Amino acid sequence: MANEVNNGYYKLSWGQRIGFGSGDLAQNLIFQTVACFLMLYLTTVLKINPGFVSRLILSVRLLDCFWSPVVGKYIDNHNPKLGKYRTYLLYGGIPLTVAACLLMLPAAATWGMTGKIIYATVSYTLLSMIYSDVNIPYGSIMASMTRDNDEVLILTSTRMVCANIGQIIVQAGFPIGLAMVVGIAVDWNQAVFMAIGTIPAFIILPSLPILKKWFGKKGLYYLLLSVGLVGFAALFIIGKFFDIDKCMTLVQIAKIMTGVGLLVGSLMWALVPEVITEAEYRTGNRPAATVNALAGVAFKAGFSLAGFITPWVMAAIGFNLASEESALPTDPKAWFTVTCIFAIVGFILLTYCFLSSKENITTTPEKPVTFGEMWQEFKANKCLQLVLGIFIVVFLASFISAPVNAYYTHLSDYNPTVQNAILWFTTIIPAVLLVIVGYLIYKYPLTDEKLDEMNKAIEAKNAAK
């Protein structure tokens, strides 16, 4: 139960915080599977041409850029009995679980290429659209639980710790699970390298309130980005000039440092409630689902560009994922088994999130939100524009290297051209993108003092009604 209520400044229990965070863990069991392994599944298991896979990922994500605002508009304009946002965790969770299980059917590997292409297109499109039906309302729950900036920060850190638990489970657990199902030895160096970048989240995110007091909001972002840049530089130097197998400890330390820099992507979700507050201050409406839908579009845009660029460019420079020796087992039944386990556990966690989250602040507009009004909000809200830009760039940095990470520890197995391609995608490109993220954060104008003034003015206006 919420306690110490002061208008909209709700203090939340740890049960509510962890319950809310479990929803992000649930979604990441599916999302990270798609982000890190779908491209490899389509190219190395189904043997679909990387050029088609590149176009498929981009096309589905472009479709989602139109679909997400439709979902956000619908949610903002409706108020179901089980909760304005919580309802969709159940109603969307069931089909999401089924769609995830259907994503990697073993039988698909036996079909002709035309059948494989149709299957990949339909299954991936369906999963992507259903995922938005769950992800957008879930993100809106945080802005409906409290106005308290400190509570929002704790909620964000709790949510992101849970999200990173999901990330480390998938990034390490997927290759481990494949090896166990197939019955071969686990490549522990590879599994650790793919997942160890998530470790900083479990140290930094719970410490966010105190770190923010020490360094300030922007100062903390700059510190994390700087550590990440050093980590990427170290990975490049080791991969380019040294034997990775003899430097594995340094490699893992450098990978942890890159995880510190990419952790800024997780912290960006703390800015979304700020943008929602700024919109409410200007308009009187609290368009939580609309803003989260737009944030989701930007997030997916970064993911989409990464999914498009990586296979296409690597194929263009001589690294065809479908024809090169795979860094992971290619047994279709193993891929299906591991994916289903993650999907079913995810649904159980979504149910727990539904039961534990409490919506305290929700509004339904007096007249339905239109797409024109959503576009007007985007144009009027400069803070939103900056946050969306940060989302695109930071998640492009995160996901452009995700599928290629499986190949970094096997760098010596490939020719010099392929080695350079792997190094570009695992070190140089993400580092350049983090520099751009730092510039966009510099331009972000909302301070905690401004937000406190806005929240007080909103509460005073509400009390006078």
What would your notes on this structure say?
- With 465 residues, the protein is mostly helical.
- It has one domain.
- The chain has 20 helices and no strands.
- The N terminus is likely disordered.
Which key terms come to mind for this protein?
mainly alpha, 465 residues, disordered N terminus, globular
Could you give the topology of this structure?
Layout (H helix, E strand, L loop, with lengths): L13 H32 L4 H27 L10 H5 L1 H9 L11 H33 L3 H34 L5 H8 L3 H6 L3 H8 L1 H25 L6 H15 L1 H4 L3 H13 L4 H29 L15 H25 L14 H10 L1 H18 L5 H4 L7 H28 L4 H16 L2
Helix pairs in contact: 1-5, 1-6, 1-15, 2-5, 2-14, 4-5, 4-15, 5-14, 6-7, 6-15, 9-10, 10-11, 10-19, 13-14, 13-20, 14-17, 17-19
Number of domains: 1
Give unreliable regions as ranges: 1-5
Strand content: under 5%
Reported for the largest beta sheet, the result is:
none
**Helical content class:** over 70%
Which structural category do the helix and sheet elements fall into?
mainly alpha
What is the average per-residue confidence, as pLDDT, rounded to a whole number? 85
From the alpha-carbon coordinates, what is the Rg to the nearest angstrom? 22 Å
Q: Using the alpha-carbon principal axes, give the shape.
A: globular
Order of helices and strands: HHHHHHHHHHHHHHHHHHHH
For this structure, the quaternary state is single chain
Total strand count, please? Answer: 0
Roughly how many Å apart are the termini? Answer: 27 Å
> Helix count, per DSSP?
20
Summary of the model, kept short:
The chain has helices spanning 14-45, 50-76, 87-91, 93-101, 113-145, 149-182, 188-195, 199-204, 208-215, 217-241, 248-262, 264-267, 271-283, 288-316, 332-356, 371-380, 382-399, 405-408, 416-443, 448-463.
